[in-house]
Specification:
- This protein folds into two domains: 13-88, no CATH class; 104-154.
- It contains eight helices and no strands.
- It is rod-shaped, with a radius of gyration of 28 Å.
- It has helices at 13-25, 30-42, 56-63, 67-79, 84-88, 104-115, 127-136, 145-154.
- It is mainly alpha-helical and 160 residues long.
- The N and C termini lie far apart (82 Å).
């Protein structure tokens, strides 16, 4: 007699239908399809299943993955409180990996600087000249000329 499963997968009829649709339509990313197949194999509430739910090793063979993948998916299912859709879908990032240097305030200050009269000896602003003046201006992070050009292009601002 085997030991009791530490993380049983018990899908509702809705979850089973959703996962079956993910597997059969072919429009979902491969990682989602793989995780959905694993959860469907591990489901203990499947009405079409004869006998007890398969072990992780059998489920891995049927799904065409290694046993570690099955363990990770069942752990993720347990950690997410039994939410099958949340288990198969990719987790969304809450914050960007790097904070943006150019915020709305910085954009406004760059555009305001570009609207002023160019310094003595120049007919008009260039991106490199704006870059030099941005470095001298307090409150604006140091930006290169290409970043300044993107800010101006985004607002349809022309230096001519």
């Amino acid at each position: 007699m085997g030991r009791k499963k530490s993380r049983p997968v018990q899908l509702s009829a809705e979850d089973r239908d959703t996962l079956t649709r993910i597997v059969r339509t072919g429009s979902a990313p491969a990682q989602q399809v793989r995780r959905a197949r694993i959860l469907l194999e591990l489901d203990e509430n499947n009405p079409n299943q004869e006998g007890p739910a398969p072990t992780q090793r059998v489920a891995a063979e049927r799904a065409g993955v290694c046993v570690d993948t099955v363990v990770k998916v069942s752990r993720a299912y347990a950690e997410r409180g039994g939410d099958a859709v949340d288990t198969v879908t990719r987790k969304k990032r809450l914050t960007p990996p790097v904070e943006a240097k150019v915020t709305g305030d910085v954009e406004a200050r760059i555009i305001a600087l570009a609207c002023t009269k160019p310094p003595e000896g120049y007919d008009r602003w260039s991106l490199r000249l704006l870059e030099k003046h941005v470095l001298l201006t307090e409150g604006i992070p140091p930006l290169d000329h290409s970043s300044i050009g993107r800010v101006l292009k985004k607002r349809n601002f022309s230096l001519t």
